Amino acid sequence: MSFPVLTTGLANSIVFGSYSNALDYLSQSDCNLPSHCKQASSVQVFAAGCFSGIVQVLVCAPIDLVKVRLQGQTTGERYRGPIHCVAVILREEGLRGLYRGGVALALRDVPCYGLYFLPYEVTRKALTETGKAPGTFAILMAGGVAGVVTWACATPMDVVKARLQMSGAGGRQYSGVLHCIGVSLKEEGGRVFFKGLLLNSVRAFPVNAITFLTYESLLKILCPPGK
What we know:
Blueprint: H1 2-28, H2 42-72, H3 82-93, H4 102-126, H5 136-166, H6 177-188, H7 197-222
Helix pairs in contact: 1-2, 2-4, 4-5, 5-6, 5-7
């Protein structure tokens, strides 16, 4: 538990920071006056979300790998902790080993972070009266909807990613994303790609509702309007 808890803040800061900066750049790129371009289009929101997914994968793929390896081992004999896990991976698989499953992670996160922010912006706007700032209820509902929509789309590739990441820790060996998909589909059927979807969705609503509320609250404190 300690490793995910300590790294969640880092991952979220990377995602929200890169998204905010990308959206700010995209929404002003076609304008002479930035003040006229505060309302971003759906395409811009999706593109900024995809960009945040790219940045997140580049930085957090090793973190995600270590988390999966630690959670997947049934005993403490192989990895004694996060640092030992990294050391073992580097010794046995080299630097590339830290990015095992990185392609599957990118296929999951890049489009899904686009979908993560898009339903949030749409839902928040729908629940907010014209000309008024979004309230707590609108932000919580929009964040929860965004989390559920994202996991509904991300779960199939999340299953593939986890299997690829565990293949270097005594799990079944796969030659790549397509091989993993083919073998899993052949042996377990299409339902295998939706394992954990219900649990992920139940967890995603409150977690992402609070995440977005915290994000919006911090923006008001750290970046008040007019500054």
